[in-house]
Amino acid sequence: MSLALLVNGTRPVNGAQPVKGARPGNRARPDLTGALRRHWPLLPLVGTVLLLLAPLPAGDATASGKVGPADAASLLLVFVCALQALRGRVRALSPLGALVLGLPAVGLAVATVTAGDPYAALPGFVRYLQVFVLVPAAVVLLVRDAREFRIAAGCFVVLALFQGAVGVLQYATHTGASYQGEDIRAVGTFGPGDVMGMATVVSYGLVVATAAALAPGLSRRVRRIAGGCALVMVVPLVLSFSRGSWLATLGAAVLVMGMAGVRRALKVLLALTAAGVVLVGGVGIGSEMVTERLTSITQVSSAPDQSVTDRYTMWAAAGSMWRERPAAGVGLKGFPAHRDGHSSLALSSGSDTGGAGQAYLRQPLLSPHNMYLLILSEQGLIGLTALAGGWAALLVAGLRRYAADGGARGIRDCGLIAIGMLVWQLTDFLYADIGGPSTVLTGVIIGLAAWWALPSPDDEAPVPRGFGSATGADGR
pLDDT at residue 10 above 70? Predict the structure, then answer.
């Protein structure tokens, strides 16, 4: 599916036809030039998402201090935002928006200066500031209307389709990451060092496509193509064998379906169920392993696998760190240094990774694999309130705006996408935390959610016709 088709699936407004005698090639160039002039500040945002199509060298996926192409694009995004702000060409930010987006910086500063080794905590401060403050703020300020929101969301679908295709090929040819003695785990171009990378981006794309398929304002053609993309992306998501991604996607999809309406939800749910039965039950794609993986979710106290044991052991260690320093935590990047002093003997030395072009490697366990507990242990109640409190505010405000409708009529697809992706992220944070090249996308998602939940005073301007929805609303 082309990015343009996801963004705009409507017919020309008022039956407009090409000018008589005009050459198609000559007519296209001015349109392309005008589009570039209007949307050029959005190019770093597009690059932040789509540069994750490029594979990283083996071992670079989780290396500390590495700045990947997507991270570089996000820094350019922040620079362009600052430049446009100086020129007065960004959206106005409401006081509530400034508070929600800026408050995490206070908690991060406190956790850094109160850390046992502030110098060691400084890289964590920079990373958190990038992902949770600067990138979201840049997205909110630079994305000026629903058209540009749809462009950004469409990039997630393109990325997911590509990474998912690579993952399915890895499963089919036994060139994926090692899983239960076979090189079949779909990891896309992220490699075995970041086994959650492909599952994460495919989940993002699936949520966007599902929301677009259910959105009442988009054309029927776009909804059908989006629905087909959602069905296709179920396959690589299943083959990722990522339990957390499965649960988060299910939760986000159910919420989006409920918000879109019962009739639409039932159609999509039946289609997804049928696809799952055919692919796993009928064709037998990973059926035994998928069943074993699903069963392991409930095996917490009765014969859990080592990964579950490690996770719950590290969760307990994070809680112990917080009780030791409840206000400000042990400091950013402090979990690995304090882990052994707060862990039981049940914790293993690390997880085994290999396959997908990489030799066997023992990966150390450097985080609790729960974002909320990681924040609580390293930043204490101050940091958790600033970060998680802001996310909760965005979710509540986004749901209220969607329910109120009002001026959002005609751009409700943006609301479905923003809320669905935010819910996915907040749910996945129960089983995962930040790390790897795809981390920068978290900042983009928070920014898109804030764009929807915290409308700018500029959004009260008259709504032009002719783009992206059945009613022609542009959503400025």
Answer: no
